[in-house]
Amino acid sequence: MNDAQSVIKNGAVAIKNGKIIAVDKIGKIQSSYKANRMIPGEGMVLMPGLVNGHSHSAMVLFRGLADDLALQDWLQNYIFPAEAKFVDDNFVRVGEQLACWEMIRGGTTTFVDMYFKPDVASQVVNECGLRAIIAPSSIDFPSPGFQGWDDAFAAAVDFVKRSKGKNPRIIPAIAAHAPYTVSPENLKQAIEAARQYDVPLTIHLAETKTEVEDVQKRYNATPVQHLENLGFLEPRVFAAHVVWPNESEIALMAKRGIGVIHNPDSNLKLASAFAPIPAMLKAGIKVGLGTDGAASNNVLDMWKAIRLTALIHKGTTLDPTAVPANTVLRMATVGGAEALGLADKIGAIKVGLQADLIQVELNEPHLIPIYNIISHLVYAANAQDVDTVIVDGKVLMQKRKMLTLDPERIRLEATSIADRIDAELRPNKDAQL
Fold first, then answer.
1. Which of 41, 229, 277, 304 has the highest CB neighbour number within 10 Å of its CB?
2. What is the fold of 48-339?
3. What are the entry keywords (predicted)?
4. pLDDT tens per residue across span 23-70
5. What is the secondary structure of 60-121 as a DSSP string?
């Protein structure tokens, strides 16, 4: 995923101290370097790991809990009450482990986690070996462990201060939930803190038509313009969804240099509409891909997001050349890294970058024959084709075997928590059946 998007047949990569030090034909690499460990690649494509720019990882434990609902109904009547009742340290620990297992299995090597209990989430990420931006969510009303904005935001800032620079794979960040759930004064606090501590800031933005109407009514401005009026928009900010910007706002976001994370699965499932991704790309906005949380997706599968992105914008524009395969694959790798401000570290197979790489097996029937590898990765590959996952030069999965997590224990603990949630939320289920 360099600028030329070159494909090296019979290629190899040399890794030292977690970084890529050479990329070339296998013969040249073998003659120039002596490896302590060599990972074979016959029948595989080696590519950068996928970058999931927006998730609420531990929400995998709410997967399938409340489906086929509008966003506001889903949030206010199901998700927020469930979080208040069940989200604690153990919930986040097990949920984060389950999410990391799913993401490693599907070839995601970097993800953004906008949720609660950041110290617990960070410990899981540290142990499993993934790379993550951990952004504890702050919101104006009560959330798990907090009475409202003041204590939640204070805890988030404390996490940033304690965590920044401690682990090169874990970047602390500020997260303001959304313009309709965070007051203007608190949004200003959030961006000022992000500047003070020089960390990223993430926010849900212009996700639904209802949000646009609500913010317009309250502040006499659309969500994007509202943030601009507050001096909020700058390159450290990356916004999730951005389904409803107008033409002038697209130009404004490009000018301000913010990143946008496209979440096609949840946008479709929650009927939020179709984000104008072709127009954003044309304007020069840094666009990455995300899965959102598994309560609204319902999987943390970046391959699904890749394929949907390639397909839905052809349908909405009636243009088969809109968002072509090479553009989408870029969005899932180096484009996502750019949106998150990490392009100097990850996203491409390039000397000097961190060795965050995956191998995808090409021998399954749905990948035969091969004329164009990029086309296959976008339109035919799936999460089950990922064979090997490497982050910072450390192998997290090989031959589809997890090396840093215990899947059986995670499965049992996640099922136990789900059984308790099901029993408490649906006490009359059997009678109703």
1. 277
2. TIM Barrel (3.20.20)
3. Hydrolase, Metal-binding, Zinc
4. 999 999 999 999 999 999 999 999 999 999 999 999 999 999 888 888
5. GGGTTSS-S--HHHHIIIIIHHHHHHH-SHHHHHHHHHHHHHHHHHTTEEEEEE-SS-HHHH
